[in-house]
Amino acid sequence: MSSAPHLIIRTSATTGSMSPALHDSPASPPIIESDDAPDQSVASSTVSMPQSKLSEALESVKAAAELDTRALRLEIKTLSARQISLEAEIATTTKERDDARSTYASLQKLYQEQCSKSQQRFHTMYLTIFQSCFGSI
To answer: How confident is the model over 104-113, as pLDDT tens digits?
Structure first.
């Protein structure tokens, strides 16, 4: 008795997906497993499947896996480009923030100087008015 590969296909009633897997165990025939059994356990039934169908199923799974791999690589590339863009935007925003802080500090210093000059002028004017009204004491 030769050990012919057999196929186990798991189907999902909720998602409609099928996941085939090839097994080399001579003890069991090809099986279809489903998650839509009434008691939520896995239902099994024996299916005759020629070698060509097994090969087709495996090629289909390989092709789907390759497409998924390509899609994931493309997504990684897109996300990497987006990350680089965001990092550049963060660097620009950080520089703008630092420039704004520097400008604010300069304006704050200028404001304090103007307040000081204004206060000195006020005191000088007040002293002049006081002396003109009351004379020097």
So the answer is: 999 999 999 9
Characterize 78-98 residue by residue with b for buried, 16 or more Cβ atoms within 10 angstroms of its Cβ, and e for exposed: eeeeeeeeeeeeeeeeeeeee
Number of separate helices (H) and strands (E) present in the chain: 1, 4
- Contact between 57 and 5 under an 8 Å Cβ cutoff? The reply is no
In this structure, how many other beta carbons lie within 10 angstroms of the beta carbon of residue 23? 13
DSSP 85-114: HHHHHHHHHHHHHHHHHHHHHHHHHHHHHH
pLDDT of res. 118: 95
d(Cα 82, Cα 88) in Å, to the nearest integer?
10
Q: How far is CA 81 from CA 12, 86, 87, 126, 133, in A?
A: 36, 9, 10, 67, 77
Q: Tens digits of per-residue pLDDT, 36-87?
A: 444 444 444 445 567 888 888 889 999 999 999 999 999 999 999 999 999 9
Q: How far apart are CA 121 and CA 23, in angstroms?
A: 97
